[in-house]
């Protein structure tokens, strides 16, 4: 499973990229607002830090304007994935971009039939929003499973990018169901490494090691 970070915070992206765990980045208008930065400038900086796909979302809702905005975003760097909403205009724009050889991330997906349309439109990524489905009393994981089955049935190459991830359990469950990518806030990526028994076990080992009085000398 690939890990993308869902943020436009340069300090967070830089810090996490150093772990070697960041395969890409997703942004959206709300995250750009939160960053307080100009979309072009901040996205250019992100693309220079992370070589993998960096999703930048169009703000237009009408086909022609979406195509114009998407092409402008794609000029930022070669690793841009143009993010379009799952509307008919977005799907039409997706087909245009895909035919031009550009990566497209179709976002705001809440049903398996929407995901089927995105794959048929040539999307590189489909973004089902797990957390937002959970928020309204549904189970976002059901959607991941449905999309996996449908894409496998027909051999679609579109990657399932599990989005709106809120917890490490979301990451585990999406991975169990075969999501290709999970995009998550920096806090969730950091939390993946945490376990109280790891902390407790390490504490005991360090205490016992100190009692041995030994040191391990560096090689060479
Ligand atoms: C994905 O690309 C979206 O930016 C993101 O995952 C949305 O998450 P949220 O529902 O927590 O805002």
TrEMBL record:
Pathway: Carbohydrate degradation; pentose phosphate pathway; D-glyceraldehyde 3-phosphate and beta-D-fructose 6-phosphate from D-ribose 5-phosphate and D-xylulose 5-phosphate (non-oxidative stage): step 2/3. InterPro entries: Aldolase_TIM, TAL/FSA, Transaldolase_3B, Transaldolase_3B/F6P_aldolase, Transaldolase_AS, TSA/FSA_arc/bac. It catalyses: D-sedoheptulose 7-phosphate + D-glyceraldehyde 3-phosphate = D-erythrose 4-phosphate + beta-D-fructose 6-phosphate. Keywords: Cytoplasm, Pentose shunt, Schiff base, Transferase. CDD domains: Transaldolase_FSA (cd00956). Transaldolase is important for the balance of metabolites in the pentose-phosphate pathway. Gene3D superfamilies: Aldolase class I. It is found in: Cytoplasm. Its EC number is 2.2.1.2. Its main location: cytoplasm. PANTHER family: FRUCTOSE-6-PHOSPHATE ALDOLASE 1-RELATED, TRANSALDOLASE. This is Probable transaldolase. Belongs to the transaldolase family. Type 3B subfamily. One of its GO terms (biological process) is pentose-phosphate shunt. GO terms for molecular function: aldehyde-lyase activity; transaldolase activity. The active site is at 83 (schiff-base intermediate with substrate). GO terms for cellular component: cytoplasm.
